[in-house]
Input
Amino acid sequence: MQVKNLITSLTLVASSVFSINALASDTIKVGVLHSLSGTMAISETTLKDTVLMMVEEQNKKGGLLGKKLEAVVVDPASNWPLFAEKARELLTEAEVDVIFGGWTSVSRKSVLPVIEELNGLMFYPVQYEGEESSKNVFYTGASPNQQAIPAVNYLKDELEVERWVLAGTDYVYPRTTNKILEAYLTSLGVAKEDIMINYTPFGHSDWQSIVSDIKKFGSQGKKTAVVSTINGDANLPFYKELGNQGLNSEDIPVVAFSVGEEELSGLDTTPLVGHLAAWNYFQSVETDSNDEFIELWRAFTKNPERVTNDPMEATYIGFNMWANAVTEAGTTDVNAVEQAMIGQEASNLTGGTALMNKNHHLSKPVLIGEIQDDGQFEVVWETDSTVAGDAWSDFLPGSKDLISDWTAPLKCGNYNVQTKTCSGKTL
Amino acid sequence: MTLINTLFGQGKNKLDSRQQPGQKTLPFVAILVISTLLACGANLLLPESSALYVSTHTITLLGKYLCYAMLALAVDIIWGYCGILSLGHGAFFALGGYAMGMYLMRQIGDRGVYGDPVLPDFMVFLDWKTLPWFWQGMDQFWFAILMAVVIPGLLAFIFGWLAFRSRVTGVYLSIMTQALTYALLLAFFRNEMGFGGNNGLTDFKEILGFDLQADSTRVSLFAITAFLLAVIFIISQYLMNSRMGKVILAIRDGESRARFIGYRTERYKVWLFVYSAIIAGIAGALYVPQVGIINPGEFSPINSIEIVIWVAVGGRGTLIGAIIGALIINYAKTRFTALFPEAWLFALGGLFVLVTLYLPKGLMGLWETIQAKINKPVPEAKDEMKTGVSS
Amino acid sequence: MKQFQNLIYGLIACFSFAFFSVYAVANDSQSAKAKSDTELLVALTQVKLKQMNPLLDQIKSSQAQTALPIFKTLLEGRLYYVRSGKHLIQMQKIGKEKHYFELESATALPHLTKKLVKKVKLNNSVRRYLRSAIAELELSHPDAKIRAAALQSLLSNLETNLQVTIEKRRALETDNKVIDLLDVALNLYQLKQSESAALQIKAIEQLASRLEIPVKNQLTTVAETSPDPAVKQAAFDALKEIEHSTNRYELVDQLFFGLSLGSVLLLASIGLAITFGVMGVINMAHGEMIMLGAYTTYVVQLLMPNHIDYSLWVAIPAAFMVSGLMGVIIERGVIRHLHGRPLETLLATFGISLILQQLVRSVFSPLNRQVFSPSWMTGSLEINPILSLTLNRLYILAFALIVFFALLTLLRKTSLGLNVRAVSQNRNMAKAMGVKTGWVDAMTFGLGSGIAGIAGVALSQLTNVGPNLGQAYIIDSFMVVVFGGVGNLFGTLVAAFSLGIATKFLEPVTGAVLAAIIVLVFIILFIQKRPKGLFPQKGRAAE
Output
């Protein structure tokens, strides 16, 4: 008798304690999978708040399909296996209809098998290295051809740069971006000895030798620029060292892909003035919708100084597109929404509209800005029209034959145009 | 005979209860086996609508906890019983995990995004042409498992042989183990190493032909983990109660004395260290298919410190304590990080301080005290927990 | 050369366009010449960035007197204009606040607010133009140092049209250093333009001892392209000579990098050398003490925004107090109870470190905080054109040594130091002799933590001030202390500098990551060989 009771209670405990208590089912649930603690909390907390703000705004407009939206927030704590675990929890226990989340590539890679297995829907709002296209993920950040290649074109055409330093933190995004850039520069006729590639560990803080190498590399009579994929915390010491060793932005400009308004808000930008960043969005762009967005954001965070940045715009666009797609499909069913997403348009905060392509990547404008002493960017250049995001780079030998098309009849994320097969498909 | 005695935790061979509080092996193993079977049954047999249904998510979580429990057991064996505080056990765990991860990676075959039959995706992506030598043979399950045991064991042997022979002890040893795992962390972050850099190994498809995403595979993995935990627990318990275990305890409490009596203490320490590293490696190998990713983050020194904390909270020097500590803290972590991400670190930090201050023997020690109070109104003479490592 | 021509054509094209736009703005002017001075300045507020350089050129040639201050203000990003009247003004930052002044008279314009004014835009190409224009205008500056600096910056982009100016200057110049530089410039012209091989070789001979980078570049070009073999050979020999001295200075440079890294390691670890080395507490919260010091710097700068240059002098004692006090609290509250159980202190202090990190996150947000560098710490000390030592590193190196020797004196010469040593060597005996061991423990731990706080002030000048600051240094600090020998301060000093130098000499060969790994593995192996570090403490009781 006692044993039986024990067993019953044990199983009960086991099944109840691990579940998030599901609330009434007449809401549409929006999962938020951004780290709120750990090393990535710095960047990701902002995006969590952005999603919450968008949900609130949507509810003010009456929700979707006559239902209110409800955000379900979990904390994967910058721990990559935990991302997979929490994604499973969101999809199976909380039964969310969509997930907004991820920042690092590894977090996305970790979530990917889970989200494909359970047929979930995720929006990934950060610039990344490309080389991926999943049926279940929409990539609203920039791929390398929407950030790196236009930036290099700018340096080459406008600043007449002839020598290139590709400096990055040693992880997959810089590695891939630099591989693409190296191939691209070579295709433009840049000699091997005019390209210097350097990798440093995360959070690298002693840049003396590397900056002095860059100085040497840049003092050989040819105009030199640094293309930086240096991540997060390593940036401030890098720029400081540049300034102290007397390399200013006129001599050797640095164009960065991971330095935005949020990152700059934590540092004294005096030594950075004149250095560049390439993004799809800058807070300083003056449009009505951007002013409105900034206003809203500051009211939401109750901080009149709070800055906005590119991944926030990517979240904004993604959210709006998703809301439109759900309305269009009349359901939150993943397959229907996924098809409705393709071809969806939403307005950018910087003017114009973004378009969701067949490969689950966006067409967006590319802007290049110079860092100002107030931590903002001054736009110095922008593309004439929008640039379509490439899932597979044309400059990598492994992926130049691959395309992604999620519409019928192909319905494949990695279709090889040479062999006419969809690799990786199991069935 | 000894084995039976060990199982029942009594008999003539019973050790001084001061060092072996409440070793009720059989009840523990029984609870472990029964709850495993129940959880498996509840997942596979009951319909999802049933109130008693255990979701696959829960099963995976439980499996992960059991891997951590095994890891805690490994640390407890050397710290609790031999006084060697390793701040680098995460390294052995991760190495075991990488061996398994490499096997799972090779199993993907041409189903990777680039469709290369041999090279894993990240190698195609970095434009590598051939498979590095250390990836050879990892497509064989038996070989990968062998490596998951041999590599951590070998590393532990080399490290232990060097360290214990030259009598690096106490604090120095702890710091060195930390340096070891930190060096490995940096090394595995490097993309040139050929282990996928920061992203690690992921996107696994199947193990031994079984689909990793199928419920039955997950349940089996969980059951295997529980079974192996029980086996390792019994073996360790036997070992600790054997003659060798006594020498090990003697080393903990007074290494010089044990040496002067004539024991080659460094040999005992080296082999115990290797044994512990192998357990950690097995735990890692079981962990990877269940969580679906292995990356250098597992080498981070903070992770290794956390393992020590599980053991300390549960009660070191008691194998059950280590397991309970790992289960409780990880469960709390899962729950509370979701509920109060802000306050969670305060609570965790506070817990460590309080446990070290007021519960030097951990939860098991607390349990002992309570039991002692219930059984005998007059408590025994207070015995101080000795750490074995004197300053 | 062709490029240069293109540039000229481009400039001319832009020039006429800029003129056009200037006149379009000034459509009500009858006599362009009379009003042109102010018109040109007003145009600054209206032209597109691309037309900026020609416009500035025009200003430079038409009003050389006023151009210099305007250019300087513009280059510093302080040139603003009033939105309504397009009237140019200058901005001065006092602390964090912007104040506006008349451009020439510098009278304050307190009625202007942020909304009423706008900054004159500029970008890199404008900045580059400004720098060379300013250098050109400063060639005749009364201060010889400024003339030299101007000439230095002109050398890297020696334009043909400057030759006459430089020759004129050479005739007037009296300062030897400037004369040297002028000669370099003239020799470079000679080398570039002369048809005569003899003259070229003469120029090469005079340039051979110069370390200026443009000299090397020009010589390389000559060595590669000159049709005359004799000239080629001369350039080649000169290059060899330059190479030789360059290598020597680069070695010095590398050594300095190593010393600088060593000083950072030393600062990060001396606090630990006391709490861990002398007291035997495995203080995992040591990194957080450093972090607290860095945050103290941030708070001090918040409190005195108008005196950033002096803020560090206030921050050093403040950080010492804050971290030291925290250390005393930790010692009295927790560590005291764990006496003689070193491994347990590890767990408890690890818990404390988690709490402190989260505390900082809750109070200051998880974002990095902005700590300013005082002006006297930015820039570098130029010894010659290749060798320049960055000032912040130089100061930190000196600071680390000062802190170290101050601490050493404290431990050796004061009664507190005597007590600390007594307690660490034989606690019971010290107690028996009447030393208040509890008090000494608290003071020692406070001292170690306070010094970690001071290290935080220094590190705030080099790296990010955020909740993870301490984590980044904790492992390195332990390595340094263990490598040097626990309980031996001199060992810590030697260990910090040798590890720093080793890392910096390895880095160019192996890359940063591998260098770190090699150093770690080396320490691990070294400790196996000598379990008590470089300088084991002698005479302590056996285990």
Observations:
- The domain at 148-256 of chain A is CATH 3.40.50.2300 (Rossmann fold).
